[in-house]
């Protein structure tokens, strides 16, 4: 665990707003790691949670959640994040090992530790784009643990609302090299026009053999689920108002846009992967996850 000195320096990067949601996801990954039927392993996740004052008393193990999976926050919602982690882990590893991608770009990387916990082939480079504060906090915790990445890891401290392309290319990204892109838990927070701009930019920077995964919500009215147990428990217990952070305006059909640009795309509900893996959330009444979709796209080689 990071020591007290580290708690007093970079934690402001995850102290509130969208940064605080990175701690929520880290706590979920920590709980998933210690489940007897774990879908994903992240031994670093609990250290992030404990190092930040905002989350220091959150659960990081199943035994700290008395109601288990019936708890809407640390049960069902945490299991959703565990399932998402596993599915996107598999996507990235497959894109690199079988698809031939040699660069990985994490858009809004948050407290992602895939550079440290997944097995990468030689020559792979992983770029992590996020704000300076979030990356600084992550570096402090990982440095305190003497954590060593398993591939070349290149942090890119920049805000996706600014000229992140210049920052990425300046860090060594090569648009001529097949790339696996990931936007995990990001697009919810962007206005529709910003999502379109980001997807168009990824398209422009992607050569043949590249791949992209991202998460969207298809709900026409997100507020229809304002009183769902998932949203209310997250707000009341953690002070995280997800609906207040999400962009509630009209959403573009980014999957269809990529298809029009020549990508091969597929759109899935999380529940499909629950059934595939035999564990994870299933549909329920007044379900805040009902509109979630995971999109996978590849730019075919010609």
Structure description:
This protein is of the alpha/beta class and 302 residues long. The chain has a single domain (4-298), classed as Vaccinia Virus protein VP39 (Rossmann fold), CATH 3.40.50.150. Helices cover 40% and strands 14% of the residues. It contains twelve helices and seven strands. The chain has helices at residues 4-7, 17-33, 45-51, 72-97, 114-117, 132-144, 164-170, 192-205, 229-238, 242-245, 254-260, 270-277, and strands at 103-107, 125-130, 152-157, 179-183, 211-217, 264-268, 292-298. The chain has a seven-stranded mixed sheet, with helices on both faces. Helix 2 packs across helix 3 (45-51) and helix 2 (17-33) packs across helix 4. The chain is globular. Mean pLDDT is 94; it is low at 1-9.
Please name the defining characteristics of this protein.
7-stranded mixed beta sheet; 12 helices; 302 residues; globular; disordered N terminus
